Amino acid sequence: MKKKTPRKTGKSRKPNPGRESAFPLEQVRELIDLLEERGLEEFEFERAGVRIRIKRRGAAGVPPPVFESYAAPEPAAPTAPKGETPSEEAQVQAAAEMGVAAEDVHIIKSLLVGTFYAAPQPDAPPFVHLGDTVKVGQVLCVVEAMKLMNEIEADIAGEIARIFVENAQPVEYGEPLFAIRPGKK
Amino acid sequence: MSKRATLPSPSRPRRADGEASVAEPTDRRLSRLLGLLLEHPMVVLSGAKIARQMRVSRSSVWRWVEQLRTLGVRIKGHGRTGYQLESMPDILLPQILQRRLQGISLGQHIHHFFKTESTNAVALRLAAAGAPHGTLVVAEEQTAGRGRLGRAWHSEKTNGIYCTVILRPPLSPVQAHLLTLVAGLAAREAVVEVTGLEVDLRWPNDLLAQGKKFCGILTEMQAEAQRIRYLVVGVGVNVNHSKFPPALEAIATSLRLVGGKTYSRLEILERLLAAFERDYNRLLAEGAAPLLARFSRFSSYARNKHVRVLGAREEFSGVTAGLDPTGCLLVRRDADGKTVPVLAGDIREA
Fold it and tell me: What structural domains and CATH numbers belong to chain B?
């Protein structure tokens, strides 16, 4: 989608503990929360010569929120995403193979740690094939975790340009499942 | 406290957009007729009077009374003498159920069907149309009750509980699977309280009695990257089935077959919803650890059970070794002694 900015967000502005800086860490955290709450993609703010820019990197970049009211933190969520996200790599890679800019490829990612199913039941044909044209809201696959079935729909219309995983394969949170080349308007 | 959910309007089934089955007119009339009889339990209501109140013909009233009888509702009398309920029917009607669900937020909105394809399918449509958290869909009969991976769920008329709850939990999608454990534990508690039978939990949420399954739970989710849009938790309980088709006999049972008597579906459903709500709130407040501990307490499958794991890709046998912090079942593989987490797949006693 958008280009990645090498500049980091407020969080890592300075190695020093951030308290003396014009923006206390606490305030930055609040801004991040606000961004999350409102579902904003990007946020820029300037005050007293300091500019803060906070940008979400889509699903895989931001670890999912944990229970708000946890008394003590515990590892309730399966493997939170870490480091470079597989889906960004996938986007760049798929785009390179297709000979288009990364922005022109849309990646559908897994929202769960689970098992990927290409078809509604074992002996049924898959929901979609490579090269199929899909509509917004069309079911692409199911990911299962402990009898919780998550039907993943296309959130953009276009052509299935790549399928990254095989039927019945385990998938991670944020793992790329499909690349869609958006349809021309 | 409205009796029906606001969406989509039950009074005007729209056929064009495939929502017709969300509000089946015959169902509503049967409900109204039963509602009328319930309001006058001690009185004989003449067919003519019922017909006037419902603005239909007397022969329609007779037809619907016959339909109710096939559903196990015991109604005395006939058209000329009038009709009267012989006993309180064990029908999961909103009018009856809601009275029992006071103080419970699940089930504030109830959609009841005498017959529908699948309560999960209906709930998914209602949720997509904006139905609120806690909306309950119940059916006396499912024509296409479904389980995991397109499997069918045998949904015999009026003998089982076939219901689905719509949830809109403030959880991230990666935590949603914990709710499948909540649902199984709640169903277990309800059944044990009402029947006193010995019930086992098979990971993640099958309920077994005498080694056979009588309750299955299928959860379906719609989500965005960080947020669950909605979840529908479908529960099927075999309560008063007196027999099963030959293909199921070896693996399925009902509470009646195990306990030797019939049980009140109303009572089981009421307790199930109460337990579900309590444990759901506990999960939000306390996190996963207490939930996982409770599962381990009530499931013989949690530890030291020799099982076969039937995954989508591979099959193996091993010995269970508890749950990991995310709720996965840990199994020590016979083949190499390695302990692996199982996240999806069928578990069978080896």
Answer: 3-10+93-297 (3.30.930.10), 28-85 (1.10.10.10), 301-349 (2.30.30.100)
